[in-house]
Please model this.
Amino acid sequence: MNTLKKIAALAAAALMLLPLAACGGRKARVGPALAHNAARFHTPADRTSRFMIDGVPVPGEVKGRAYMETSARGDTSLAWVDTALYFVSAAGVDSLGTGVGTAEISFDGRKALFLEGNELKLYSADTRQTSVIDGGISSVVQFAVSPGGERIAFTACYEEAEDDPRTKLYGNGQLTELLTGRDATVLAVSDDANILWYFEFESGELCVESGGERIVVSNACGADANYNFTNDLSEVAFNTADGVNHLWRLASRTETTLGEGFDYTLKTDVFSISTVTLFTYINDVPTFTNGLWQKRVRTDGGYEYGVGLIDENGGIKWLAENASQALAAPDGSRTAWVAGGRLYSTDLEGVNTTLASDVDRIAFAADPDELYFISGDELCFVRGENKPERIGSGVTGFETFGEYCVYITNDGSLFCAKGARAEQIGSGFVRMEKRAGHMLAYADPVTEDGDTLYTAYISTDGRSFTPVGKGIKP
Model:
């Protein structure tokens, strides 16, 4: 069964003030920040973890190396140091408790649910207070916080009967039983509790209750499948035991086979194939964009990628398959993909255009007609179906962010490009990381006690970088 875990890596550091030179032009239009806005920095020298949100320092700090889970909206996070749990927001760092083994942050980032000892507790970011909602719990099997945070459903094992998991619903200050007598775990609940998704272990069935009616969606997904819901819970993508992914719609009760390769869990409403207009990044892989489904399939030689178009009837037309890289445009109007070193652009009608050859890696800018790509050690730019233009050589890494492309060359120079025009904005850089809400760049590496430490810089617009500290361990 799905169990909740502790969370991914984080770091923090003392703050500095002056920004690097900015790449000229308008402020980048990066759209709403969908995930991972909260930057984390760690300085081993004083064992301090500090945080930034949208490039602004968060008041307070924690001792020790923190690990963090960021809400889907990206402006709040849970942070762990061993079993001590903290809530990080623009208002500061609040200590939630110690000896915490299980926790979940809501989609909107305003609530945190966690088990401390045998008590299930609820933290509110609005009041910065914690309340107990249930007790006598030995372990939590699954949390399900509704999209708007109005309801909380959870499946837990209780001290008096640890082999008999029970599911309860909390809302409006009331706690009620759900799925009575069923060996099941809750997966998702709507704000009005009218839609409830769950998995039954005895029958092996994925089920949904809607308006009081029980519907069996699949009996082939298995207890350890990944489930991904639209924000209104009207659609679910799940993988079956054979590794094949499926999309199921509540309104029409129809199913689409999406093929192999999807193994991430989304926590944002932009999963909806009817409303997505920007990428959602899970490990930097966009999945749904305006009905475009992106898949990644493991092969003996690594990975192959594909992009398919899901039509109104639930059918799928593959625009790209068996590619070494495949990306959907930010507005969902086309896909760009690489196969055999050749770069192609394919529109939604399936018409292919060859743009370049000897291509290693590609990235869209905010403008869906603009692509950046690496050929050898040269960074190039192409707009629409025009002839590609060379930007610079000796490039060791690049990332697009809004209107801009940031890249590092083998002499440590950091550049910002807009189109085919580039401007140097720093030196001494060796690596960078892209998130949906910011970019981190690292310069001037030094080795201390076996650790490689850096001077870290952050950017929230893709064209100017502010130093945030020295002695940083990513």
Remarks:
- Residues 1-19, 25-35, 263-288 have pLDDT under 50 and may be disordered.
